[in-house]
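Need residues for this backbone.
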């Protein structure tokens, strides 16, 4: 197929560029691929490994909220990131300013998940996979 999607890019618009860059690049560990800044503003593109698009109906999203947090807290989107060590990543991101909404816990999907809110307000699911 000649019209195949080649990349999924999630774009976050933030009020504090430097704070967001420090969180996502330095604390989260995403690799900076491109960074440009001038009088028209700033942008950084950070590599996050493999990108997938997960589509969920509201009922399933609320089910996941209850597993990860114990109550419904999600909005229309959240960013799910795979780590080898979810408890360590949760601690590192909390120290970098993220709010822990749900501590690391086992899920029915044989993964350990936690839920955080980044300083820019984006909800994060940290997960591992067998």
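Answer:
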């Amino acid at each position: 197929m000649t019209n195949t999607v080649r990349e999924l890019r999630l774009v976050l618009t933030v009020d504090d560029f430097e704070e967001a860059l420090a969180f996502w690049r330095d604390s989260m560990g995403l690799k900076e691929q491109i960074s440009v800044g001038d009088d028209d503003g700033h942008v950084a593109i950070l590599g996050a490994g493999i990108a997938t698009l997960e589509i969920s109906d509201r009922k399933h999203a609320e089910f996941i909220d209850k597993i990860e947090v114990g109550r419904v807290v999600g909005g229309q989107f959240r960013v799910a990131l795979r780590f080898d060590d979810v408890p360590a990543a949760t601690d590192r991101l909390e120290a970098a300013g993220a709010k822990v909404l749900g501590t690391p816990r086992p899920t029915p999907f044989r993964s350990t998940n936690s839920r955080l809110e980044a300083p820019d307000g984006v909800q994060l699911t940290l997960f591992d996979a067998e």
